[in-house]
Write a structure and sequence with these properties.
The chain is mostly helical and 416 residues long. It contains 14 helices and two strands. The chain has a two-stranded antiparallel ribbon. A hairpin with a 2-residue loop joins strand 1 (182-183) and strand 2. The chain crosses the membrane at residues 27-57, 78-98, 110-130, 150-172, 199-220, 241-262, 268-290, 347-373, 394-415. Keywords: Membrane, Transmembrane, Transmembrane helix.
């Protein structure tokens, strides 16, 4: 591509930029995008991996696998909800910083953007159909009902992931936007095509669901072992499976990561052999080494709560590499730099975001996690103590006050 073509593409991207500017420094949005993407993709991988465990358990005659599969479907259905909620954040941050690229990609594949929501809902329904058909059954080792619905759910989830993968890939090819929009000399308004994808990149992120699910099974054993009715044979089985999944899954993911780096687009330059290109694969392989060392004790000592946090750390490293790759393409090759975005400082909205994230989200999430934690480790019905009840009351008051200030400030601005 000659310099004049690159210059024209750069001018086009700047022309599509929001003239209103940003309410605070762009690096803040990018940093939050990396953090929230790592959290989001962790739960995506958790729902895919635990769904795979549940699917295998549903089609095997091994009673331990069947029991483990029914336990993991509980994790999967919660992970879908968390992945959706957290996934809103990195999506919004990308829309703010890379608005010319994200909205162009969405317009070019508008049908798939709309279909994304519909397919996700169907996948969610299919998962819950399987859950509601089986969760009340006392014998968790019996053959589950409606096993087909779990296959449908997992297939649709993978399709949803591919749609999002393609949309994010399209923003990295501004040199092809006009070609995609102009088909055979005619403007294409259909939006019915996904124009770009990298199979190895998609496969890498999906494959990470194997070690993440393994981390969940390791953590599951550690969480359940303190109960008075703990079945240690079953829990040790879950932990051993989890350890193998971390080791094998991390190696598979590392191979796919290398394949991704070998097939990145030419506009990425030498990113694959740069520090950030290499560190992502090293981090993933390092997860296997960590599991081999840290989880190499006796059966009763092998599990810890560090397995999932370690998966998040690996995800942060990969998310950072992914963001630097995007910046290297759009700025390094095409000359589009989000750092020169016009800033119209809005201290109220910036402060409100961080206070909402830290206080509202922190208190409410602490209450939910406390309830889930204590209920899971209690035999029978869990009754919250005075401290937990006070935390719940505080969470309700904080949310109520947030809603009040939201409408008061909104009305004041409207009145002005």
């Amino acid at each position: 591509m000659d310099a004049q073509s690159v210059s024209q593409i750069t001018e086009m991207m700047y022309a599509l930029r929001n003239p209103a500017g940003l309410p605070t420094y762009p690096i803040i949005f990018v940093g939050l995008s990396v953090l929230t993407f790592a959290m989001h993709i962790l739960f995506v991988q958790l729902l895919l991996g635990t769904s795979l465990v549940a699917l295998y358990g549903a089609y095997t005659n091994n009673p331990l696998w069947r029991r483990l599969g029914m336990a993991m479907i509980d994790v999967a259905k919660v992970s879908v909800s968390v992945a959706i909620v957290i996934g809103v954040a990195p999506l919004l941050f990308v829309q703010v910083v890379y608005d010319p690229h994200w909205y162009t990609s969405n317009v070019l594949s508008a049908d798939w953007v709309i279909a994304f929501i519909i397919i996700l809902i169907l996948a969610y329904w299919a998962m819950y159909l399987y859950y509601f058909q089986n969760y009340k059954r006392e014998d968790k080792t019996a053959q589950p009902k409606s096993r087909w619905s779990l296959i449908v759910s997992l297939a649709l989830m993978l399709l949803v992931g591919f749609i999002m993968h393609s949309l994010t890939s399209q923003i990295l090819h501004p040199e092809l936007w006009k070609e995609w929009y102009m088909q055979n000399g005619k403007l294409d308004y259909s939006g019915d095509t996904l124009h770009a994808y990298n199979f190895w990149r998609y496969a890498f992120f999906i494959s990470m669901s194997i070690p993440v699910a393994g981390a969940m099974m390791v953590t599951y054993r550690r969480f359940k072992m303190v109960r008075e009715d703990a079945d240690m044979q079953y829990l040790n089985f879950a932990a051993e499976v989890g350890k193998k999944w971390i080791l094998v899954g991390s190696v598979i993911a590392t191979i796919l990561y290398v394949a991704w780096m070998l097939t990145i687009q030419e506009t990425a330059g030498a990113f694959a052999t740069s520090f950030w290109g290499i560190i992502g694969g090293v981090a993933v392989l390092g997860y296997a080494l960590w599991a081999k060392i840290r989880l190499n004790g006796k059966s009763e000592d092998m599990c810890s709560y560090m397995a999932l946090p370690m998966a998040l750390v690996i995800g942060l490293v990969v998310a950072t590499s992914r963001e630097i790759l995007r910046y290297d393409i759009l700025n390094g090759f095409f000359g589009y730099d989000f750092f020169d975005y016009k800033i119209v400082m809005d201290w109220y909205s910036t402060g409100l975001f961080f206070l909402t994230f830290a206080i509202v989200g922190g208190v409410v999430l602490s209450y939910f996690l406390t309830i889930a934690w204590k209920a899971g480790q209690t035999v029978g019905v869990y009754t919250p103590g005075p401290g937990v009840q006070k935390l719940g009351t505080a969470a309700i008051w904080i949310v109520a006050l947030w809603l009040v200030q939201f409408f008061v400030v909104g009305f004041y601005v409207w009145a002005q």
